[in-house]
Structure formats: structure tokens, C-alpha cells
């Protein structure tokens, strides 16, 4: 959209000589809410626009849990950023004054032959790891020839509790305006002006589009939309082997399955990258989930899967950069940023996006 239509111009919010800026955030998922928190902590005025309730149960972020993993083999820069994210989560937990992060660690299956190399890399990166004995863990489908390596700087983020805690904290801050049921219709990419469904036009000193998989409706970006089917399981009766168990990945015959452990009122969640598929839109209402569930059942992610009661099935969407398959944070113009794609680790890395946007506000001052 061009910035030269006949809409009445709205004045930028920053008063001359004032260090405080006005930041407009579109979308109250984890990216939008943590960005609002970072900007409010830096002393800026913030407006959060969310099309549904706040937080919105339809947001990608609104789930029981998400994993945080820090060791990215072969990517020391990425590992350093993930360690930074891990520290941010501890800081946010202290700020909100409520448990949000189960530091149970993250276990990943690694080829036995490359174990020494991996342990050396973990040492260099400062990621504490260990190799738990099989008897310490619930039965996991580690592929043959692999060893489970547990990172201590990882675990499970209690995703929906994060959203509620952030929204509660923001609601108490002077200078923060939370606007649920405010749908953004379009955005002027040049000026960063935001047009709501009601016709209201808003402009801050900086705007971030953080609409999750729906961001692509507001700003054109080269992203691929993915859909994934997830299975929620209860524990087998009398089974306490999951107490304190880590999140685990690299499981199953193809080494692409993962599980998030149950605990503090959450279920066990299981899925695999093999059931992650590119789709055209976020409407999954007509899609038959049985082929994906059958696929998950035979993959061997949990060798004794038939012992676990199935509690629910859910599909979820995320976007990834079409070129790299990873995340995408773009500065469209001086006053407009877009989180065009979050990739598969967009929850755990949201504090880094929040920090980058708070820095961008400072740079623009
Ligand atoms: C199956 C699956 C498993 C995942 N596992 C992990 C994991 O283990 N670890 C991890 O770190 N990440 C994981 N992710 C990724 C992570 O969940 C997402 O990247 C993250 O939650 C995206 O957060 P967000 O705030 O950017 O978007 P969302 O949470 O989708 O929030 C966007 C918000 O914007 C609102 N909105 C949209 N359009 C408009 C509009 N026009 N006007 C106003 N509001 C609007 C929506 O209602 C919504 O509330 C996973 C994703 C999937 C799909």
C-alpha cells in the first residue's frame, strides 16, 4: 500500500526532545507481547493491537508448552544467541514473578561416532551437557547408533502461561495500551501507518507486525506456510518415569520426532517433522488428520506409544523464510519492522526479537 492515499495524516507520537517513543505492536502472541514488555521496560509508550481476546487462544503461541534448545551443532553464533535467549527467559520469569520455564533440559539423539566432537563443541560454547543413563529416562525412540545428549540450558517453556503473565504485567504499566478485538486491516509500508478494520489510522515512531502466520496478509514476504499435527497424551497409569524428564528430539526411525514431557499440569506432546507440510492457508477445518496420526504412530518416537492414553490432537501453523527455512525479521522502512517468519523455534527466540526491536527504537531516537 502506498503512503500517498487521501487518509488524514496522524502525527508521530514522540514529543520534541523526549526520549520516550511510541511503539505500535500488531499481534499479541509471544513475539508481540515480549516486544511490548521490552519497549515498556525501556520507558517507551506501547500500543498492542490484537484481533481477538488478549491473549488469543488461536495464536500459534497459545499452547501448553514449547521447547528451548541451546546447542546448535556447527553453528557457534546460533548457539550463543540461544544461550542469550535462555538467560532472557530466566530474567522474564523473575520479572513476572511466576514459573514459566521448566529447566528440565533438552535431550537430542546424536550419532555415536561424532559424540566426542559434539562434546568438545558444547565445551567451547559453554553449554553444560551430560549423557543420562537409559534407566534415568522414560523409554524414548533413540535411533540405532545414537546417544542421547542432554543440554542443561534448555527445557520447556510454559507457553500459554507466558502469554498470560506478559499480558498481566503489561496491563499494570503506565504508558501501555492493550487493545484486544482490534483487527489491523492494512499497513502503509513507507510510513508505518496502521489501518484498523474500523478505519482508524494509527502511527507510532516504530511499528512491529507480529501476526504470526497471518503476518503475510499484511506485508508481502517470501515465506512458506507450514502445518503440523501434534498429539497430546496422558501418562500410562502408575507411570512416574516422566517426572523431571527432558524435552527430547531426533527420535524415531527417521530421527525427526520429538516429545515435550508432561509436568505441572501439562500433557505429554508428540510430533515429528515428517508430518510438517507446506500448505496454502491456515484453514485446516476440512483436512483429515488420520494419515498424519497413522504416520506418527508407526514412527517409533515412543517405542511403547500404545500404552499412552490419547487426550487430544491439534494442528498448528508457522511460517518460514522460503529461501532458508528459518526465521525472518525484516526492517521494511525506518518506521516499520515485520516478523515475517518465525521458523520452528520462534517461541524460544522471541526475547531476542524483542531486544532487537527495543534497540531499533533507540537507534531511531
Ligand atoms: C507445531 C509447532 C511446534 C512448535 N514448537 C516450537 C518449539 O518447541 N519451540 C519454539 O521455540 N518454537 C516452536 N514453534 C514456533 C512458535 O510456536 C512460533 O514461532 C511462535 O509461537 C510465533 O509467535 P508469534 O507471536 O510470532 O505469532 P502468534 O503466536 O501466531 O501470534 C500472532 C498474533 O497476532 C494476531 N493477529 C494476526 N493478524 C492480526 C491482525 N491483522 N490484526 C491484529 N492481530 C492479528 C493473532 O490473533 C495472534 O494472537 C512451533 C510451532 C509449531 C507450529
UniProtKB/TrEMBL annotation:
Coiled coil: none annotated. It holds the Pfam family DAO. The keyword Hydrolase does not apply. GO terms for molecular function: oxidoreductase activity. Its cofactor is FAD. The keyword RNA-binding does not apply. Keywords: FAD, Flavoprotein, Oxidoreductase. Residues 22-359 form the FAD dependent oxidoreductase domain. Its EC number is 1.-.-.-. This is NAD(P)/FAD-dependent oxidoreductase. It comes from Kitasatospora phosalacinea. The lineage of its organism: Bacteria, Bacillati, Actinomycetota, Actinomycetes, Kitasatosporales.
